[in-house]
Amino acid sequence: MGRSPCCEKAHTNKGAWTKEEDDRLIAYIRAHGEGCWRSLPKAAGLLRCGKSCRLRWINYLRPDLKRGNFTEEEDELIIKLHSLLGNKWSLIAGRLPGRTDNEIKNYWNTHIRRKLLNRGIDPATHRPVNDNPTSHHTNTNATATTTATAANINNNNSSLDVGTTTTTTISFANATPITHLVKEEVEDEAKHNSDGGDRRKIKNTLPEIQERCPDLNLELRISPPHHHQQQQNNSSSSSSSSSYIQPQIQHVNFHHHHHQQPLKTGGRTSSFPSGTTICFACSLGIENSKECSCTTSLNGTSSSSTGYDFLGLKTGVLDYRSLEMK
DNA sequence: AAGGATATCAACCGCAGAACC
DNA sequence: AGGTTCTGCGGTTGATATCCT
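^ inputs. structure came back:
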């Protein structure tokens, strides 16, 4: 597949941006909005390649960037997300409002890696440095892990047959040996929802999607698609592979040590046990998105103030249809 | 004060999927 | 269907700042 260079390199500036270039870019995007990066430099009167403009805007000039030092909470969130997602910086950044993937990537490489090493944790595997991979499956902890994991696979049905309401619950707590069970689902979700789509890298990081966060227990329930989705598939895709039901990740159960009250959701709205119905999209800070089906938000306040789109519900990477907190 | 080592982070590069034609 | 373009991603580089001797 041939491709032309993204710009006339001979006529473009490189290196650090000047104040004037920044001003031009900001002014242009304010007037015309983002997008069409290839044609933007010329239209904005910049001697830069489109990619460079995009990067400058996204990583530095965007008005919603937070800047400043990372907080301890952000540190810990990055560590947890990295333990789940690996080097998927854009996904991690999607859960840290005001932070960019580049910023987080740099921060990881310069600060957090060292921080974890000082704690005796391998930043690549999130395991103790002296816990070599070959011994992992044979030590006593690993045995216990396997047992616990098996117990956590709560499969209501032995198969994923068409027409059944099979749900498989996978707990990420102690979930190392069952990584392969969710690997396919996450990869599928990621490849459908990742904007840039980079399966090459997803493959590289998926083996790391396993429990390394002792206080964040993520459970995935896998079951056939929702009824409405099947209808959608039937109507929109004449070449649907009806003999093959793509398993769906249905639930994420957050078992957080400090949050014992249940938050059960179903579809776009969720209900507290008391019967209070909340909008799932609102509860996750995406009340203005197309996912939002209500006009009110949790507790009458804009949940976007939380800023978090935890686990990709905004970006759609992990398009869980319901969320359950225990 | 000098200069070498190390840390930081903005920017670049190449790749790959999506979208378009 | 296949070629081309656009876009976004993660890895890497290199300029600058800071620290250390």
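Residues 1-5, 133-326 of chain A have pLDDT under 50 and may be disordered. The first strand of chain A starts at residue 121 and ends at 122.
thumbs up if we can close this ticket
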